[in-house]
Amino acid sequence: MTTVSSQSYRLAVILPCYNEEAAIADVVRDFRAALPQAEIYVYDNNSRDKTFDVARAAGAIVRRETRQGKGHVVRRMFADVEADIYVLTDGDGTYDAASAPAMIDKLISERLDMVAGSRLTTYEGKAFRRGHRFGNDLLTGFLGLCFGRTFTDILSGYRVFSRRYVKSFPALSTGFETETELAVHALELRMPIAEVPTPYKARPVGSASKLRTYRDGFRILMMILNLFKEERPLAFFSIIAATLALIGLVLAYPVFMTYIETGLVPRFPTAILSTGLMILASLSLTCGFVLDTVTHGRREMKRLAYLAIPPIGG
To answer: Which of 24, 159, 234, 289 is deepest in the core (most CB within 10 A)?
Structure first.
């Protein structure tokens, strides 16, 4: 039980839901037992079943978000719900509610802004659909390559946040890529964060995953690339510049050697192409320097907005 939290902090459990009639009642009851002092919010995202009624009957505060997509729901929850500590998880019954008190205690005792639950240590055999574990590792590794390896499971939907994390999070994504955005926001502002192993269960009978493996995996990959471009523009455009310059040099080498030997430039189109590629490489590098300055100023503003909110225990 979370003794300090129950005495000193307002807790909110926030559950985005879409067609989770089969699981949501048990999820609400489990979190009510694990965190009896918390307010439990269920945000229904245009469910076609009885998710709304079942969640309300189970004792949750139920609200609607009509724009389809988990990212839209997370944005709405973060804007509407007022608390000191937020527990974000899915309403599908796959995450372990009993792990929440320990995650909250870690957030408070170490004065962190986010504690993420990693599903990769203890999970039921059918918890991960075929290919999902490999895709998760692939995307996590790619994010680590772009932003620094801090997380082992960036796609986990089980996280505990401080108020200053939630109220400083821009929430720009619309779908399942919101977990990636949550991770990058913490990494770019260099927030104190942690990751702890949590059990991961298979979905209950009657519940179906809304994740579309290839479509959503591609969207997450594009989100990582887009965030890399926005948050690390110098590195992003330097890679483009280096690639263009390398191609330009490869094309220019035989033309240059022919000129040295004969004093002639017989392949004039190739010379023009290689010159154009070098100009594009220079422009790309210049864009990187300019955008890096802009991004630095934008990151300072986000950092100041983050610091304007008192920390845990502050």
So the answer is: 24
> Within a domain: residue 195?
yes
Domain that holds residue 244: 233-307
Angle at 65 between CA 133 and CA 99, to 5 degrees: 45
- Angle between the N-to-C axes of helices 213-231 and 132-147, in degrees from 0 to 180, rounded to the nearest 10: 0
Question: Would you call 95 helix, strand, or coil by DSSP?
Answer: strand
Residue 63 has pLDDT above 50, yes or no: yes
Strands 39-44 and 114-118: unpaired
Measure the CA–CA gap between 202 and 16, rounded to whole angstroms. 18
d(CA 84, CA 11): 6
Q: Are strands 159-162 and 114-118 parallel, antiparallel or unpaired?
A: antiparallel
pLDDT in the model for residue 314: 65
> Smallest Cα–Cα separation from 235: which of 279, 223, 243, 140?
243
In angstroms, the Cα distances linking 152 to 27, 118, 156, 165 are: 25, 7, 9, 20
Measured CA to CA, the distance from residue 115 to residue 112 in angstroms comes to 7
The two tokens of residue 203 are 């979905």
Cβ contact 6:37 at 8 Å: yes
Count: domains in the chain: 2
Closest alpha carbon to 201 in 277, 92, 101: 92
Specify the amino acid at residue 137.
D
Full-model pTM: 0.84
Do both 181 and 47 map to the same domain?
Answer: yes
- The answer to whether residues 30 and 2 touch, using CB atoms and an 8 Å cutoff, is no
Distance, CA of 26 to CA of 95 (rounded, Å): 11
Among the candidates 205, 229, 253, a domain finishes at 229
Q: Tens digits of per-residue pLDDT, 30-41?
A: 999 999 999 999
pLDDT (tens digit per residue) in 67-112: 999 999 999 999 999 999 999 999 988 899 999 999 999 999 999 9
282 is a domain residue:
yes
Secondary structure element (H or E) that encloses residue 193, with its range? strand 193-197
Give, in degrees to the nearest 5, the angle at Cα 187 between 236 and 238.
10
